[in-house]
Amino acid sequence: MARVVVDVMLKPEILDPQGQAIARKLPQMGYEGVVAVRQGKRFEVEVEGPADEAALERVHTIAETLLANPVIENFEIRVL
Amino acid sequence: MARVVVDVMLKPEILDPQGQAIARKLPQMGYEGVVAVRQGKRFEVEVEGPADEAALERVHTIAETLLANPVIENFEIRVL
């Protein structure tokens, strides 16, 4: 069994109100020095067998159909 | 300027209904071979200056007070 991570982030040109809200809150809480925050999703997908090319190809298909919205989000896949 | 990633995942002993819903849906969509899915959050925090020890310490404090709930979530910090 292998664990594959899928990181999903909004595309840079897409507004991220959640991240902006966090970044705006930080100075009020006394934390300086943070310029920007972007919030995304992280999935840990446990696959049967080894994380070979076929398994990663399958996770890629799952990511683009179910985990991410390719119109507004980018995703990256890596073996944990 | 440096970019620091904060990965936030539910602790292993905490039930993850979102991840379970995805894992259950996959076979119905024709995707076999996935044993489990866990869903978490990923934050990209852009900090002023270099990602030195002081900056990472600051991000750690922000993560445990604002980005994660340490009662039910674990987090990991790494420089991008």
Automatic annotation (TrEMBL), chains A, B:
Pathway where this protein functions: Purine metabolism; IMP biosynthesis via de novo pathway; 5-amino-1-(5-phospho-D-ribosyl)imidazole from N(2)-formyl-N(1)-(5-phospho-D-ribosyl)glycinamide: step 1/2
One Pfam match: PurS
Gene: purS
Recorded superkingdom: Bacteria
InterPro entries (alphabetical): PurS (IPR003850), PurS-like_sf (IPR036604)
Localization per Swiss-Prot or TrEMBL: Cytoplasm
Known role: Part of the phosphoribosylformylglycinamidine synthase complex involved in the purines biosynthetic pathway. Catalyzes the ATP-dependent conversion of formylglycinamide ribonucleotide (FGAR) and glutamine to yield formylglycinamidine ribonucleotide (FGAM) and glutamate. The FGAM synthase complex is composed of three subunits. PurQ produces an ammonia molecule by converting glutamine to glutamate. PurL transfers the ammonia molecule to FGAR to form FGAM in an ATP-dependent manner.
Quaternary context: Part of the FGAM synthase complex composed of 1 PurL, 1 PurQ and 2 PurS subunits.
GO cellular component, one term: cytoplasm
EC number, as in UniProt: 6.3.5.3
Main location: cytoplasm
A molecular function (GO) term: phosphoribosylformylglycinamidine synthase activity
Reactions listed under catalytic activity: N(2)-formyl-N(1)-(5-phospho-beta-D-ribosyl)glycinamide + L-glutamine + ATP + H2O = 2-formamido-N(1)-(5-O-phospho-beta-D-ribosyl)acetamidine + L-glutamate + ADP + phosphate + H(+)
Protein family per UniProt: Belongs to the PurS family.
Keyword Flavoprotein: no
Stored NCBIfam families: phosphoribosylformylglycinamidine synthase subunit PurS, PRK05974.1
Alphabetical keyword list: ATP-binding, Cytoplasm, Ligase, Nucleotide-binding, Purine biosynthesis
Keyword Transcription: no
Top-level EC class as recorded in UniProt: ligase
Source organism per UniProt: Actinomadura litoris
Entry protein name: Phosphoribosylformylglycinamidine synthase subunit PurS
